[in-house]
């Protein structure tokens, strides 16, 4: 996406703090001005290398993936599973945004920012025939491969079948940042693109472009699911430790509107510890072709 400024509406042009509370950005534009040093080659972009450097220091475990909150993993997966199940073809569900025909198929899913494959193993493999992982840290992908291989060696008989299944179903391991993933080169169509706890690592313009690439890579009836932290207030938080930004719900809705995707349903993850930021799940589908337009200054809507 070109570097022309996004025209943020007022409710998103708020001030924001970094995770130490030491720097305050007057606006979201100021965040990007301060934090993005855009070079020609996106791989050299400070925004992405700082995050990459951080993740290289993190141990390849579920605790590492979830910042020491491994205990939320089961609840996280249970809610995601219920949310996703609703969209499968022939299921009857309710969306709170607009009438929707359930057309999601069980063919192929992509796990974006997959880490060591926690979501792949626990959520996507049981639901889809094939799964691809996209993750910028090759050590995490190696660990995912090891975990999926080791599964069959373990003695726990009742889990063995499930684990063999993982090894059989996972096909591609793409060691690349989401902002650089070449969807056209691989020309794979996905029924489900799952993007969990990683979008804060993409700055706004790359996020919109990534969503557009995802939309172009969906099968008929395919959907994009995003699960991530949102801020409790209207402002944003810049995390200086892992170089990511946590956006407000309104901010995300605005970015969806700027993309070629439309929101179908959103819920808040229930039963998470109160001390944590709210976690939201979003289901998106491509906008009907005639509605697809370039980014504009539209106002945001809340669910
Ligand atoms: C909080 S972990 C979440 C992992 C996984 N989605 C889960 O829920 O278990 C964030 C992951 O995003 C990866 N990541 C960070 N920036 C990325 C980028 N630009 N492209 C792809 N992956 C990225 C990190 O290496 C890490 O594995």
Number of strands: 11
Query: What CATH architecture label applies?
Result: 3-Layer(aba) Sandwich
Structural class: alpha/beta
| Overall mean confidence score, pLDDT | 87
The unreliable regions are 294-303
Bound molecules: S-adenosylmethionine
Kindly report the CATH topology. Rossmann fold
Number of helices: 10
End-to-end distance: 28 Å
Structural shape: globular
Q: Taking strands numbered 1, 2, ... along the chain, how are they ordered across the largest sheet?
A: 5-4-3-6-7-11-10
Q: Report the major sheet.
A: 7 strands, mixed
As a percent range, the share of helical residues equals 25-40%
Run of helices and strands? EEHHHHEHEHHEHEHEEEHEE
- Could you name the CATH class? Alpha Beta
Write down the Rg.
19 Å
Explain how this protein is built.
There is one protein chain. By secondary structure, the chain is α/β, with parallel strands linked by helices. The protein has one domain: Rossmann fold (3-Layer(aba) Sandwich). The protein is built from ten helices and eleven strands. The protein has a seven-stranded mixed sheet, with helices on both faces. Helix 5 links the parallel strand 3 and strand 4. Helix 6 packs across helix 7. The longest helix is centred in the middle third of the chain and has 16 residues. The radius of gyration is 19 Å and the shape is globular. The protein binds S-adenosylmethionine. The site of S-adenosylmethionine (SAM) has 20 residues, from helix 2 and helix 5. GO terms for molecular function: N-terminal protein N-methyltransferase activity. Belongs to the methyltransferase superfamily. NTM1 family. One of its GO terms (biological process) is methylation. This is Alpha N-terminal protein methyltransferase 1. One of its GO terms (cellular component) is cytoplasm.
């Amino acid at each position: 996406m070109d570097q022309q400024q996004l025209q943020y509406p007022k409710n998103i042009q708020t001030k924001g703090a970094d995770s130490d509370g030491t720097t305050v950005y007057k606006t979201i534009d100021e965040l990007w001005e301060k934090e993005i040093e855009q070079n020609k080659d996106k791989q050299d972009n400070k925004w992405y290398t700082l995050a990459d450097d951080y993740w290289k220091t993190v141990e390849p475990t579920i605790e590492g993936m979830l910042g020491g909150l491994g205990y939320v993993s089961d609840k996280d997966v249970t809610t995601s599973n219920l949310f996703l199940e609703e969209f499968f073809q022939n299921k009857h569900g309710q969306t709170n945004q607009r009438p929707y025909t359930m057309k999601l198929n069980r063919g192929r899913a992509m796990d974006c920012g997959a880490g060591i494959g926690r979501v792949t193993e626990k959520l996507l493999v049981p639901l889809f025939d094939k799964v691809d992982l996209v993750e910028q840290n090759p050590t995490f992908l190696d660990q995912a491969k090891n975990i999926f291989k080791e599964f069959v060696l373990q003695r726990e008989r009742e889990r063995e079948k499930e684990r063999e299944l993982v090894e059989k179903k996972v096909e591609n391991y793409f060691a690349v940042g989401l902002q650089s993933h070449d969807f056209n080169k691989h020309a794979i169509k996905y029924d489900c693109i799952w993007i969990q706890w990683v979008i804060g690592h993409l700055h706004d313009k790359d996020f919109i472009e990534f969503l557009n690439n995802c939309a172009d890579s969906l099968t008929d009836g395919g959907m994009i699911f995003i699960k991530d932290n949102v801020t409790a207030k209207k402002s944003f938080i810049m995390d200086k430790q892992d170089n990511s930004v946590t956006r407000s719900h309104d901010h995300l809705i605005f970015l969806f509107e700027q993309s070629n995707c439309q929101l179908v349903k959103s819920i808040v993850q229930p039963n998470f510890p109160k001390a944590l930021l709210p976690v939201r799940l979003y289901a998106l589908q491509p906008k009907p072709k005639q509605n697809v337009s370039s980014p504009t200054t539209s106002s945001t809507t809340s669910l």
